[in-house]
Amino acid sequence: MRIRGVILSSVAGLGLIGLSLALTAARRGERVMRVDFDKVVRATSPAYDARLAPAAAASIKEFRIPIKDATLEIAKGVTYQGWTFGGTVPGPVIHIRVGDLVRVTVVNNSPMPHSIDFHAARIPPNIAYRMIMPKDSVQFEFIARDAGAFMVHCGTPPITMHLMQGMPGATSRVGVLLPAQPDWSAEQAKNASQVVFNGRAFQYKENTLKVDVGDRVRLFVVNAGPNFESDFHIVGAIFDRVYPDGNPDHALEDVQTYHVPAGGGAVFETVFSKEASGEGLYPFVTHSFADAEKGAVGIIQVGSPKNAHMEH
Ligand SMILES: [Cu+2]
Question: Which residues, including other chains, have CB under 8 Å from residue 71's CB and lie 6 or more apart?
Fold first, then answer.
């Protein structure tokens, strides 16, 4: 039985960190992996690539993250000028293992000050998360001590504005964006015009996430907020495991819906076994349906169902 890893992220400038549930804490030599997110850019067309590749074996992982402006599409035909990590919303997905030494370099190639905040790190934020002026950079390192699905985001005030402009880096929903540009007053009133998985409304309804009958599917859901909870649910399935925070020590069993707080993460697992949730189409939603109707709905396609369309 294969395990499929899927990441889902919320809103604007956010990055997600998936810390593998496999707690292989032992150091695996001192091999170094380097990734420059100026060169490694996740596909966003026809939909943001939701697959999570296995974490590399190297125990030292170095990441270069550029901050840059980009034109982004939050719903069909609705674009805005966003602020991003690595040019996409959500930003890069950083997959590391507990015990890894993680080195981060953030380079600000945009015309305004930004910063970065790694929820996965235990680190003095006044140093690591300081303001990065245009053309400046910041470097810090930390040991990954906690398993989970973590948010990465810009922490420059006003933080909600930086989040709605596209500066989260990881998993689950909520775009508080109006046509053309984010609307500050609507955001302050918590009045979202779009609520999205991985940056664009309804993208996984049109481009379903495909798995095989018998697959165990693992979803890393991080809620970028900025201001909403996400009530994650798959129609026609039960999560046999939910890991609040993504921590294997927090496991819950047989759950229908589980909420992910703004700035939080969780890992969800279900099996599409032949005997139960077999071949078919399974919508995943935030069960706060006003948000689902604004874009936070996608479809997991199991096998090759004959009537491959949903009535709702
Ligand atoms: Cu920012």
Answer: 79, 80, 81, 82
Greatest alpha-carbon pair distance for the chain in Å reads 57
Contact 206, 181 (CB under 8 A): no
Kindly give the distance from the C-alpha atom of residue 11 to the centroid of ligand 1, in angstroms, as a whole number: 13
CA of 88 to the centre of ligand 1 (A): 14
Domains of the chain and CATH, by start: 14-168 (2.60.40.420)
Q: What is the mean pLDDT of residues 88-98?
A: 91
* pTM, two decimal places: 0.87
Ligand 1 centroid, distance to 267 Cα (angstroms): 27
Closest CA to 231 of 199, 256, 207, 204: 256
Q: What is the reported pLDDT for 259? A: 94
28 by Cβ neighbours in 10 Å (0-12 / 13-18 / 19+) ranks as middle
Helix or strand run (H / E) with residue 254: strand 252-255
Model confidence at 164, pLDDT cuts 50, 70, 90, reads confident
Cα 102 to middle of ligand 1, angstroms? 22
CA gap 148, 68 in Å, rounded: 27
Q: Ligand 1 mean position to 111 CA, how many Å?
A: 11
Eight-class DSSP state of 87: T
Q: How far apart are CA 211 and CA 3, in angstroms?
A: 10
CA of 73 to the centre of ligand 1 (A): 18
For ligand 1, the distance from its centroid to the CA atom of residue 241, given in whole angstroms, is 35
> Which range scores top for mean pLDDT: 10-14, 53-57, 200-204?
200-204
Residue 113 Cα to ligand 1 middle (Å): 7
Tens digit of each residue's pLDDT (9 = 90 or more) over 184-241: 777 777 788 888 999 999 999 999 999 999 999 999 999 987 888 899 999 999 999 9
Ligand 1: centre distance to CA 14 (Å)? 10
CA distance 111 to 100: 33
Give distance in angstroms: CA of 158 to centre of ligand 1: 9
